[in-house]
Each structure stands twice: as structure tokens, then as C-alpha cells.
From TrEMBL, chain A:
Superkingdom of origin organism: Bacteria
Classification via InterPro entries: UCP030820
Protein name per UniProt: DUF934 domain-containing protein
Source species taxonomy: Bacteria, Pseudomonadati, Pseudomonadota, Alphaproteobacteria, Sphingomonadales
Cited Pfam families: DUF934 (PF06073)
From TrEMBL, chain B:
Nitrite/sulphite reductase 4Fe-4S domain ranges (all copies): 119-273, 404-540
Keywords assigned: 4Fe-4S, Heme, Iron, Iron-sulfur, Metal-binding, Oxidoreductase
Keyword Hydrolase appears in the UniProt entry: no
The protein's name: Nitrite/sulfite reductase
Similarity-based family: Belongs to the nitrite and sulfite reductase 4Fe-4S domain family.
């Protein structure tokens, strides 16, 4: 947990996340882990009981987790969304935009580099899951 | 032409700063080459056979004279004094140093240019019709839609690690001059029966090792849902495109394996959901962008007369100019295919000259074609002789648009780390052999790729050449009957391949079959389609 970068004030969930399949069979856990091949939408009926969604990136080049994160945020999930695995500092800004608010990378980030990465974009072009107003909205109000 | 506002400029500047920091961390060894690779690719930087190659985006093919001058300056300052215009309407520099790239990107940002997402597994530069805004056959200028999508696709946080690269093309006429149906998403701006403007979506086309022509998945997406529909297409692809095999990872394979109907169903479902997510810019944004593409102030009352007393000039006019919507104007094509030259290459001096001519004769606007030439879209007929005279003096006056000498060729094994065979020498030899018969052969599109990835569009050539590696020796397959135009078709391989000398002979033999068999007015492609491949096979292998 020492290497957890977290942008939330609530207490982290203290028990391990279960797989999506296990969660769907017996959903009394508060934490679930999504693998790249899982359908994030299967969790939508159960979002009320969830406090932590981990999205695993076995390889940083596999971008399915970005869609999974946005889909759950779009469905109204407000709990912790944690990127775990092969998560690199140069993905931080995009991941934040997709709704991740916690990061547990295999290799810890350098604090300064993480800070710089999160400040990459002065504005953004798209609506995403981070609530930032896209440039077109700034242009047209 | 589109002009950056404070926001666009800030985004490009932020990108330069981000990449400068990434290069620094790479040079300091703080990130590995494997980690750095996607970052440099999404800034246009490839590691090729001999050096880094930088691919600079030319959005929807349009450049101003200041931008062309800047491209020439980069060729001089950071490369060996030339650049290479590509089949994706971009420009590449072949001899770049890693440590120079942040400065190059900063130079580009000063003229509102960038190399963002010109490679890597992301949404690439949006291409368009190189006669946009000039041709009489278009419904509307397609470039505002392309610019809208440029902004949407730039740094899209969800789509930066797609299964594979993703290419979008936007056109707005029945005639297809941009190979629209051979893109991951091809968009044709159309009018429906009620007279409203919208977009027809063709998804899942492509060349490469599995060439496919994109099916139309939605004939009419309203303009105020264009971005949302693209996002739905991309999300389904990002979630379900294959990632187990890079050769099956393009969206064409997903569409093919699911079937167009099932893919469409999934897109429509995602689209219905995304419409609730406030991701579509208002039409006012499209209108804002469109004002930048308002037609230039064409003069009226111009003469249609052209003094054809110089036969060389007359030939150039006949081959290299195309009709314009405004009376007294044409679009003039500057061929980057001198006989025996390297297709698509231009020296810094030539680029500076093209920039000057762009300013002087074409309302400060030129275009890069996917056939690796440059268009001056709005030239007065009265100025053509002066323009041609300047081009001739600089070695840019080849009169060969869509003729046998107007060959598309990828960089091939002379530069590219993926290639199996050289493309450039084959193009040069075919050009030298057959250019003397250019007029007799008429329209004939020859396209050469040095490997199966098909950057030279060999599938879409009336005559295509594919370089392969045959037990360590370069070998060339011949394809016939492809087309990237409105009558899109994929070429067929004639049979066993040839060595370098043999492929030049084979192309010549194919043209002889055509000349012997053609009827009045038939192009090579028409004759091929009428008589089929067998007479050609007999001549080649009989």
C-alpha cells in the first residue's frame, strides 16, 4: 500500500479485490478487480455495493482498461477506481481523464515526475470522466 | 485555412513540453526503450534502418506557404536537405537525431503544425480530398469536419493504446480521391432526402496484409452526432479489437469476424449510451471552424483562354491541371515524380519554391496528395504559364499526373526497418522504361510496396508491385486491377514473382497486352476488367 498514489479522502478498502466472476457469483465483497478481457458493464447492476474497482494493466500497451474505467464512471460509479499493474507515469494524465483516482503501479512513480505528468494539459479537447470542461465548451460557453 | 486559437496553440505547446521531458528522461535512462517507444511513436518518431525518422502531420492535406517554408527549413537544419511526402498526406524526414526532435516539434508549433499521433496505436492524422474547396463535384468542403475530428482525436484519453493504428478519412463528393473506403473509418459527407447534411460511415477498410473495402455501417449520421458516432466506433474497437496477434488487430478484422451487421449493432448500442454523455461539440463549433474554410476571394470575369503555343506547356496543362469550381481557375498538380526520381521526395529548395508559388498563385494554400504530389488548388488560368515556367526550372514540371511515371512507392528497404525489398529503385526503373510511352498509355496508376504492410498501396494500383523476401533475395509480385477511386477494387496477383529486372519487364509486358487489346477510350484498368487476368498471365508466363 506504500506505493499507492491516491486522490481520495475516504479510507481505502482493507480487503483484497475479487475477480469479476467471483464478484458476480457472490457479491458481498466491496472490492473487485477487472482484467483486460472482462466486461465492465457486467458490474453496472451492482455498483451500489462497490467501494473499490481495481483495473489491471498486465501490459501498459493494452488500453482496454481505459474504456472500462470510463464506462463505470459513466454508469455513475463514484467509489475508488484504481489502476494497478504495468502503469507508467506517462499514462497518468490520460488515466485521470478516464476516471481513475488511484494508482498502484508495479514500479513506484517518482513523485516529481508524477506531479509533472498530472499537470500536462492546460486544457482538454474532449469530454471524459474527470469533469473537465472541453475546449469547445470554453469557446462557446 | 484553419488558424489555431489560444487553446489549440496551448495544447500543441504542452505536447512539445511533454515530449521534451520524455526525451530527457529517455536519454538519462529513466525510462526504457520499450516504455519510450509508444511515446515517441505518438510524436511521429520511428527508429528506422539507419536513423530516426520523423513523420509530421499535414492535417487534411492543407498547408500554407509559411508552413511549407518551415518544412523546408527543418529539412535544411535537421535533415539532409530534403523531405519525403507520403501516401498519408504527411511529410517524413529520414535522418533525424533523437535529441533534436523536441526542437523540431517546437519549430513546427510556431507555424501551427505538429507530429502528434502520426504513428503508434492511436487515431492518426485525418486525411481528406486534396481538391477540397476547389472541385465542383463536392457537396461542401469536407475539411471543417476533419478539423473537428482532429481536435476530438488529439490526446483522446481513452484511445491512446488501441489494438492497432487507426486511420480516418473525410470526403464530401461522390468521386473518391482519398481512398476513403480503404480507411479504418471512411466518412463521406452526404445530403439526405430531406436536404439535410450528414455523414455516411464506412468502417473496416484497409490495405496491409489483409486488404478490405469498408462496408457502409450507417448511411446518415446527423452532423450534430458526428463526434459521438466516431467515439462509439472507437470504443467498440478498443474493447473488442483483437490484441492476441498484431496482424489481426486492425478494425477491419473485427468488423470481418463479427460481421458488419453485428459490429454495427454494437456501435449503435454504444452510440445510444454515449449520446447521454455530453461529448458532442455544439454545431456552433463546427460553424466556427467552417468560417476558416470560407472560399478565397476568387476574381470574376477571368478569361478561360490558355496560350497553348508552347507544346511542352500545353502537355503539362493537359495532364497536370484539373477543373475548378470558379470560372477562370484550375487546380494545378506539381509532380514530385520526375523521370527516374524518388517518388514523393522534395529538396528544401524545391519546398521553398513551392511555398513561394503557393503564396503568389494559389491564395497561400497548397495540398499534399496521397499520390505523393503537391496541389496548388486555386490557380488562375492566366497564371499557368508563369507557374509552369518556374516549376520547369526547378525540376518540378513533370507532366505525368496519373500517368505511368506518377508512381506511388513506399520508402522500402532503402530506409524502412519493416521492408523486405527496395521500392525506390524499382519505381525509378519502371519510370525510366515506360515514361517515353506515357501519352500512349494514358491513365495508369502504378503503386509499389516494399513489404506486405502496403504503404505503397500496391493493392489499389491498376498495376501493383509487392516486394517480398524470397530466401534472402528480393522478389517482386505483380498485381493487376486495383483501384483506390470511387470504383474501389483490390488487385489480383498474376502468379510467381520476379527479380528486380524481371518485374520491370513484367510491368512493360502488361502494358503491351493492354495496348494490343484496348478498344477506343479504354484505360488500362478498363481493359483489364473487360478481358480479365488470363491474357496478361499468358504474356507473362506463357
Amino acid at each position: 500500500m506504500a506505493d499507492l498514489l491516491r486522490f481520495r479522502d475516504d479510507e481505502p478498502v482493507d480487503h483484497p479485490a475479487v475477480t469479476v466472476d467471483a464478484y458476480l457469483e457472490q457479491s458481498n465483497a466491496a472490492a473487485v478487480r477487472i482484467e483486460p478481457g472482462d466486461d465492465a458493464r457486467a458490474l453496472i447492476p451492482h455498483l451500489d455495493g462497490l467501494r473499490l474497482v481495481e483495473i489491471n494493466f498486465p501490459a501498459f500497451t493494452d488500453g482496454r482498461g481505459y474504456s472500462a474505467a470510463r464506462i463505470l464512471r459513466e454508469a455513475g460509479y463514484t467509489g475508488e477506481m484504481r489502476a494497478v499493474g504495468d502503469v507508467l507515469v506517462d499514462q497518468l494524465s490520460a488515466m485521470r481523464r478516464c476516471g481513475f483516482d488511484a494508482f498502484e503501479p508495479d514500479k513506484p512513480f517518482d513523485e516529481e515526475e508524477a506531479k509533472a505528468a498530472l499537470a500536462t494539459w492546460p486544457q482538454v479537447y474532449q469530454t471524459a470522466a474527470d469533469g473537465r470542461a472541453p475546449i469547445w465548451k470554453l469557446r462557446h460557453g | 485555412m484553419y488558424k489555431y486559437d489560444q487553446y489549440d496553440q496551448a495544447m500543441v505547446d504542452a505536447r512539445v513540453a511533454e515530449f521534451r521531458d520524455q526525451v530527457r528522461r529517455r536519454i538519462e535512462g529513466r525510462i526504457t526503450e520499450d516504455q519510450f517507444k509508444p511515446l515517441r511513436l505518438q510524436n511521429g518518431l520511428y527508429l528506422q534502418l539507419h536513423a530516426y525518422m520523423l513523420r509530421v502531420a499535414v492535417p487534411y492535406s492543407t498547408l500554407s506557404s509559411a508552413q511549407m517554408h518551415a518544412l523546408a527549413d527543418i529539412a535544411d537544419k535537421y535533415d539532409r536537405g530534403y523531405g519525403h511526402f507520403t501516401t498519408r498526406q504527411n511529410i517524413q524526414y529520414n535522418w533525424i537525431k533523437l535529441e533534436d526532435t523536441p526542437d523540431i516539434l517546437a519549430d513546427l508549433a510556431k507555424v501551427e503544425m505538429h507530429a502528434i499521433q502520426t504513428s503508434g496505436n492511436c487515431i492518426r492524422n485525418i486525411s481528406s480530398d486534396h481538391y477540397a474547396g476547389a472541385t465542383a463535384d463536392e457537396l461542401i468542403d469536407p475539411r471543417p469536419y476533419a478539423e473537428l475530428l482532429r481536435q476530438w482525436s488529439s490526446f483522446h484519453p481513452e484511445f491512446l493504446a488501441l489494438p492497432r493504428k487507426f486511420k480516418i478519412c473525410v470526403i464530401a463528393s461522390e468521386a473518391d480521391r482519398a481512398a476513403m473506403k480503404l480507411h479504418d473509418i471512411g466518412i463521406r459527407i452526404v445530403k439526405n432526402d430531406s436536404g439535410e447534411i450528414g455523414a455516411a460511415f464506412y468502417v473496416g477498410g484497409g490495405m496491409g496484409r489483409t486488404p478490405m473495402i469498408a462496408p457502409c455501417i450507417n448511411p446518415f449520421v446527423p452532423l450534430d452526432q458526428l463526434v459521438t458516432y466516431c467515439e462509439a466506433c472507437l470504443r467498440v474497437y478498443n474493447r473488442y479489437g483483437r490484441r492476441d496477434n498484431k496482424y489481426k488487430a486492425r478494425i477491419k478484422i473485427l468488423v470481418h469476424e463479427l460481421g458488419a451487421a453485428e459490429y454495427t449493432r454494437q456501435v449503435e448500442e454504444e452510440f445510444a449510451h454515449l449520446q447521454t454523455q455530453d461529448i458532442e461539440p455544439p454545431l456552433a463549433e463546427l460553424e466556427r471552424i467552417s468560417t476558416y474554410f470560407a472560399p478565397p476571394a476568387f476574381e470574376t470575369g477571368l478569361s478561360e483562354e490558355i496560350d497553348r503555343s508552347d507544346p511542352d506547356f500545353a502537355l503539362w496543362v493537359d495532364t497536370n491541371t484539373v477543373p475548378h469550381k470558379a470560372p477562370g481557375y484550375v487546380s494545378a498538380v506539381i509532380s514530385l515524380k520526375p523521370v527516374g526520381g524518388i517518388p514523393g521526395d522534395a529538396s528544401a529548395e524545391q519546398m521553398h519554391l513551392i511555398a513561394d508559388l503557393t503564396k503568389q498563385y494559389s491564395f497561400d494554400e497548397c495540398r499534399v496528395t496521397h499520390t505523393q504530389n503537391i496541389v496548388l488548388p486555386h490557380v488562375k488560368k492566366a497564371d499557368l504559364h508563369a507557374l509552369w515556367t518556374a516549376l520547369e526550372a526547378a525540376g518540378l514540371g513533370a507532366a505525368n499526373l496519373d500517368r505511368v511515371g506518377d508512381i506511388i512507392a513506399c520508402p522500402g528497404l532503402d530506409y524502412c526497418s519493416l521492408a523486405n525489398a527496395r521500392s525506390i529503385p524499382v519505381a525509378q526503373k519502371i519510370s525510366e522504361r515506360l515514361s517515353p510511352r506515357s501519352a500512349e498509355l494514358g491513365e495508369l496508376k502504378v503503386k509499389i510496396s516494399g513489404c506486405i504492410n502496403a504503404c505503397g498501396h500496391h493493392h489499389a494500383g491498376h498495376i501493383g508491385v509487392l516486394g517480398v523476401d524470397k530466401k534472402g533475395v528480393e522478389n517482386y509480385q505483380l498485381l493487376l486491377g486495383g483501384s483506390e477511386a470511387d470504383d474501389t477494387s483490390l488487385g489480383k496477383i498474376t502468379g510467381p514473382g520476379f527479380d528486380e529486372a524481371g518485374i520491370v519487364d513484367a510491368v512493360e509486358k502488361a502494358t503491351e497486352v493492354y495496348l494490343a487489346q484496348r478498344t477506343d477510350g479504354e484505360r488500362f484498368l478498363d481493359t483489364y476488367r473487360r478481358i480479365g487476368i488470363n491474357p496478361f498471365k499468358e504474356a507473362l508466363y506463357g
